[in-house]
Design brief:
Blueprint: H1 2-29, E1 44-51, E2 54-61, E3 70-74, H2 85-98, E4 101-105, H3 115-130, E5 138-143, H4 145-159, E6 167-171, H5 184-187, H6 196-207, E7 230-235, H7 241-253, E8 258-263, H8 270-273, H9 279-292
Parallel strand pairs: 3-4, 3-5, 5-6, 6-7, 7-8
Antiparallel strand pairs: 1-2, 2-4
Length: 293
């Protein structure tokens, strides 16, 4: 009887392991891509263009006067997930409330791709943009992993002496995929969205073995000396919040001021998630963000 039970347990364990391996293999092969919404779903215009084999979405207002402002926006999702409906709705609101044009790249996602694939795309994309748009009219924005990507891109621009954007706005940025800050464990008690250990696995998938110590993966370690007009929106109920303060301190040591707008009890990317129980926090932060543009 015991042998039969043991055999059953071993059989189930093998099935589970094979299932996990098949899931991993599936995601290693599948190219996850952000899909363009149907035009009648939104009050702005969305056009898809190709750049290096990937979609670049150009979002412009339909019913308001266009401003002389362009936003290069990188979405979050732990470097593994495509943009969500919340992202599209957030960007629609931004376009209509500011008149800006938003360039929204569908950058390569892990685990099929790594940070190297991402930077092979976003650096040439940035160069292409500033060939056509004055840097003084350009803002880099991003949320979560996209915030980390945006900051790392600017550090790469510093390294290559490429002209910087006029302004940077980061929402709950992921600055260190290793999540080594001991204060994270304290904030974890309040963060209902993010889990430290799960995020670390996502970071490893993005970094691979050779990138885990690179500033392109962990922009908290990069050169901040040429940054200008950086604003970070962060909530105290977000495990990525403690690293924002470390980044701010490092920037000060390099003679750079980073403006941190911290909202008490706000969760991870609360401005974009727009949860019912955070309506007041969302509206306050969103109004501030629009004014900052």
């Amino acid at each position: 009887m015991k042998a039969k039970i043991l055999k059953t347990i071993i059989g189930l364990a093998i099935i589970v392991m094979v299932s996990i391996l098949l899931i991993i293999a599936y995601f290693m092969l599948v190219d996850i891509q952000t899909k363009m919404p149907r035009q009648n779903e939104y009050t702005c215009k969305v056009e898809a263009k190709q750049f290096m084999g990937r979609n670049i979405f150009i979002i412009t207002p339909n019913n308001v006067e266009k401003a002389n402002l362009t936003i290069l926006y990188f979405h979050g999702g732990s470097y593994m997930a495509e943009a969500t409906q919340n992202h599209w709705e957030f960007l629609e609101n931004l376009v209509n409330d500011t008149g800006a044009t938003i360039i929204f790249p569908d950058y390569p996602l892990s685990p099929k791709y790594s940070y190297k694939d991402v930077f092979r795309m976003v650096v040439p994309l940035y160069k292409e943009i500033i060939d056509h748009i004055e840097a003084e009219n350009l803002v880099i924005m991003g949320d979560s992993a996209g915030g980390g990507l945006g900051l790392a891109l600017e550090e790469k621009l510093c390294e290559e002496n490429i002209e910087m954007p006029n302004k940077t706005i980061l929402i709950s940025p992921w600055l260190d995929v290793k999540l080594t800050n001991p204060e994270i464990d304290e904030v974890q008690k309040f963060d209902k969205q993010l889990n430290k250990e799960t995020l670390k696995l996502a970071g490893l998938a993005y970094a691979r073995e050779d990138g885990i110590d690179s500033y392109l993966v962990n922009p908290i370690e990069g050169d901040l000396s040429k940054l200008k007009n950086v604003i970070i929106y962060t909530g105290t109920y977000d495990i990525l919040n403690p690293d924002v303060h470390i980044l701010q301190k490092k920037a000060e040591e390099q003679g750079i001021e980073i403006q941190v707008k911290e909202y008490e009890k706000a969760s991870h990317i609360w401005i974009i998630q727009n949860e019912e129980d955070e309506k007041e926090l969302v509206q306050k932060a969103y109004n501030d963000l629009v004014n900052d543009l």
